[in-house]
Amino acid sequence: MEYKNMLTGKPSVDRPWMKFYPDALMNMISIPNCTVREYLMQRCPGMDVAAIEYYGEEIQWNMIFREASQIAKSLKALGFGEGDQIPAFLRLVPEFVTLLLAAEEIGASLLCRDNTLEENVEAAAKSGAKVIFAHEFLTQKELKAFSRKGIEKVVLISPLNHGKREAMPEHIQACLDTYYPHYPESCATGIKTMTWEEFLAEGKGYVGDPAAPVDINRPLYRAYTSGSTGPSKQVIHSAHTMLGIVCQMNFYGSAEDFRPNWMVTCLPPSLVAVVVSMVLLPLSSNKLLIMDPFCFENDVDLELMRHKANNWPLIPMFIETVMRNGRMAPDYDLTHLLAGGAGCEALNNNQLKRAQKFVADHGCKFRFTTGYGCSEAGSNVTLPMSPKPLGNGNVGVPLPLSVMSIFKPGTHEELSYYQVGEICKTGPGNMLGYDDPESTAKVLQLHEDGNVWLHLGDLGYMDEDGVLYTLTRGESPRFGGGDLCIQPMENRVADAEIDGIDDEFFVNVPDPEHPGYFVPYLYVVLKNGYTVDDIREQVDACLEEYMRPVDIITVSERPFWHFKTNRIGLMQELLKEIESKKRRVV
């Protein structure tokens, strides 16, 4: 109580979460004032040490730095220079890392997107670039679409410039094959294409130093948000903003008696979290990065067991897949996994409980945790350092060099402990901005304390120990009173432990009768033999009246899109159905 009496009531002033960070750890953390390349070289365990394992090939650090220097010259030979954007539509292959380092050397930025063809073409056109990078399975149709928007040349990269096909198990080979057109002649060819080997050859004739003046604050990496929670936006980061997150997390997943590996499956480098927390983090903390991009989402369990991963950046979709597939034997020893937790989207109490039981049943002693972050914040903004019970939206405490607090939505008024408002953050890692100044000004705001705060758009609260609890994305008022916060609603149903419910989640839909308001729908995965009628009464009983769903809909399994629960897709389906019913009535 003595500590609590010292609190001012403002989390940004008190920073009560710092009591969870040991002094020894804090003495190890400082914000790098250098380029990404310099940071990796400083922390490299040796030039002849393997940095990346890629389908049977171990890629040493000296190869990475040497290839990056070659690429820098080739980029200059093709006309790229300081301030330019380099569009790259790639899976997580080793060439992505060397392209990023080369872009940094010449003062350019790498632009990534993994949306529809139309959106990818739009991104390339907006960049002003005449040359883009893509895989050799780009189709002739896609090439023509880029060409119509001013792209003059596409550098085609084989997925197996590194690695060996024979080192791939059958399910990985099958996944890789699906990326290629059914008819080989459909692949992009012709004078508008260039092979990776031809691209590297261009640099051999480049005379001069390709390096631009060092500026760790210039744009280096541009990525578009997935659009799973709203319109897709281009997020811009620099070396300084990305390393500002990496340096605070280097201790995660470490081991004293051996060099751990770090596996990344499926997730593309068009996601900020992948580049910052899943690639730069292990590369800069003496872990062997296993790149495994050509893995069916449904086969992640096979890759977890094949590589015996020590660290595997998890998302709810992945742990759900491992549990759902049932291919991991009951006596399989999962203790090669050093830690476990899920980011990307919130886990409700039911999901968290099932995941914790699953890893415990396979011998793991760690807590299965939940984290919180976003592209705009440079990936992670919290860590599970607090010993407090997980669940109910607990996502841990702010990163040690960051400051977070809760503000009254739409204002700069800081709220106190346990008061619900908008989650905001200041400190290392915040993006430079969007490519749209108006949108940037809405989320990066100069407060009266002299700091620029990132307004994250999510609602939550912080307790007096500095533990952050997330509740929902934005406000969703229901006509007649009450705000439809997704997490509390889902957790009420989860905690009721209703017989027959295996999984459940809510989708809030604009109220067709009352503009500006929302109505909730509950989706459930039911156990065999159960129907909605078996659970309806108990669902209503555990919810406040305003939380009760207008309908309960069964699904065979939780649907995902862009690696998140597909709430937007389901909402759109519901709106179409509502509109269709209206027309039938008329």
Largest sheet: 8 strands, mixed
List how many beta strands DSSP finds.
28
Mass-distribution shape: globular
Q: Average the pLDDT over all residues and give the rounded result.
A: 94
Q: What is the helix tally?
A: 19
**How widely separated are the two ends?**
64 Å
Please give a structural write-up.
- The chain is an alpha/beta fold and 586 residues long.
- It has 19 helices and 28 strands.
- Strand 5, helix 8 (140-148) and strand 6 form a beta-alpha-beta unit.
- The protein is globular.
Helix-strand layout with pairing:
Elements: H1 2-5, H2 11-14, H3 23-26, H4 36-43, E1 50-54, E2 57-60, H5 61-77, E3 85-89, H6 94-106, E4 109-112, H7 117-127, E5 131-135, H8 140-148, E6 153-157, H9 170-178, E7 193-195, H10 196-204, E8 219-224, E9 234-238, H11 239-246, E10 261-265, H12 272-283, E11 288-292, H13 300-307, H14 316-325, E12 340-342, H15 349-361, E13 368-370, E14 373-374, E15 379-380, E16 382-383, E17 397-398, E18 403-407, E19 421-426, E20 433-434, H16 437-443, E21 444-446, E22 452-462, E23 468-473, H17 486-496, E24 501-510, E25 518-526, H18 532-542, E26 551-554, E27 560-561, E28 564-565, H19 567-585
Parallel strand pairs: 1-11, 3-4, 3-5, 4-8, 5-6, 6-7, 10-11, 12-13, 25-26
Antiparallel strand pairs: 1-2, 8-9, 9-20, 14-15, 16-17, 18-19, 19-22, 21-22, 22-23, 24-25, 27-28
Helix pairs in contact: 5-6, 5-10, 11-12
Structural features:
586 residues, single chain, five-stranded antiparallel β-sheet, eight-stranded mixed β-sheet, 19 helices, alpha/beta
